[in-house]
Amino acid sequence: MKARSIRLIAGQTARGLFRNFALMALVVVAACMFVLGSTLAVALNITNIGIQLQRQVEIKAFLMDGLKDYAAVGARIKAVPGVADAVYVSKEEALKRMAEDYPDYREVIKALPDNPLPASFDVKLSDPKSVKEIAGAVGGLEGVEGVNYGQSYVEGLSSVLQVLWSFTALILVAMVFGSSIIVNNTIGITVTARRNEIEIMKLVGASDGFIRAPFVLEGTIIGFVGSLLAGAGILAGYGYAARWVKDMAPFVPLVDATWAKAGLLAVVLALGAVLGAGAGRNATNRYLKD
Amino acid sequence: MIQLKGVGKIFSNNVVALSGVDLEIKRGDFVFLVGPSGAGKSTLLSLLYRGVKPTRGDVVVNGVDVKTLRHHEVCSFRRKLGVIFQDFKLLPDRNVYSNVSFALEVIEAPPKDLSRRVGKALDLVGLTTKAKARPNQLSGGEQQRVAIARAIVNDPILVLADEPTGNLDPETSRDIMELLSDINELGSTVVCATHNKSIVDEMRRRVIEMEHGKIIRDERRGVYSFEGPFY
Q1: Residue among B72, B78, B111 minimizing CB distance to A204
Q2: How many A×B Cβ pairs under 8 Å?
Q3: Whether A128 and A219 share a structural domain
Q4: SS3 A288
Q5: Which of A91, A226, A196 minimizes the C-alpha distance to A145?
Q6: Is the ipTM of this structure higher than 0.90?
Q7: Distance CA A180, CA A166 (A)
Q8: Is the pLDDT confidence value at B231 over 70?
Q9: Residue A196 to residue B91, Cβ atoms within 8 A
Q10: A220 and A163 in one domain?
């Protein structure tokens, strides 16, 4: 495309952006992207809570009584796919932990003639979703008496997270779909207000690409700037909500990292720009049909 | 220049706009299309610039079969035509010069020719001194002149005018028709749909009368109302 044509398209775009309908579209897109971005932030945190809870899942591998070469068993456990680490817990350490965990029974524990607790490995997982399979593999290793991974807790957590993620995904898809319809219709109005311009361009023989370009560019800019406004609102609101949750429920692991907020903003901006460009294209195409 | 054979047009709401239209217009002709509202004049003009496609029959303009024209070929086809409407269709936020140059800019005409061609078109329609005025600062007649300048700036072989004097007073209408006549003398074929009886009667050009989507009269030097044998 020639430089002069690019200047003309930029001029057309600028003219479109300084009209009342463009301002209306900007406000609607900003509101839409704010709701969508907020839903995305909630989804991000639900996912994070789920991941954090799953990370806490670990396997306890109890060793056979009297086993001397626990290092070899540890090496075999670490070699199982999905295992991130295995930390040896001696019989003495196990008893000490028990006394710490149950201070009311400290005297009873002290009075025991022998240490009844077996030595074990605390097995941390790199793939918590496969805990059942990993536990089976570890349990079958030579020197391992048995395993415990809180089967009912893990399975319950998995099914709750599954439902929660499916629901969040459904809400997100619905929000993206709804937002795209609203953005489409709103930017469609700005294009309709300039259909005379499109008609003139068609009559004088402008190509479809040439006619479409300023409207797609205008839609992209409205989508991007609207999302920028929404993003600023989301980040401000997110900071406030994060502080509130930290005070009220400090055990809830909210995502507060800069990269997460930057990622959220990037997704909202990209989505806004893409929806805006698509809306500009769709609306113009209505007037370019034969 | 223009050949129509057995042309029919039925719109999606089942309205029959044209039926069995046969017509031939030679290069350099000046033709008036007359007839009551709803007779099919605008649809016929629209077929000629491929605003709509015929439902049946053949429409050939300057050797191009309009019906089989592909979508991406329509723009280059239209670059050889000039179209004028009753409501002028000017861009209100551009001045006169810019409205005319727009027609060249969107087809990516060479920039070095731009001011010369726009100047020539504005000179022909007598608006050189108003090049910087906005459409809302012009009279109806002047706005139509701008629309005409935009239609002819690309040196079209065919100018299609749909009720170009519909919004204008009799004197201004006469000026506009004289302008179209001048354009015709410069070599463009002109097809003009009009209800303006006095001008048609005065100019004595070829008159095609339509009614209910059919051609009912075609006279070489006709008047608005029928007054002689069929051509």
Answers
A1: B78
A2: 55
A3: no
A4: helix
A5: A91
A6: no
A7: 21
A8: no
A9: yes
A10: yes
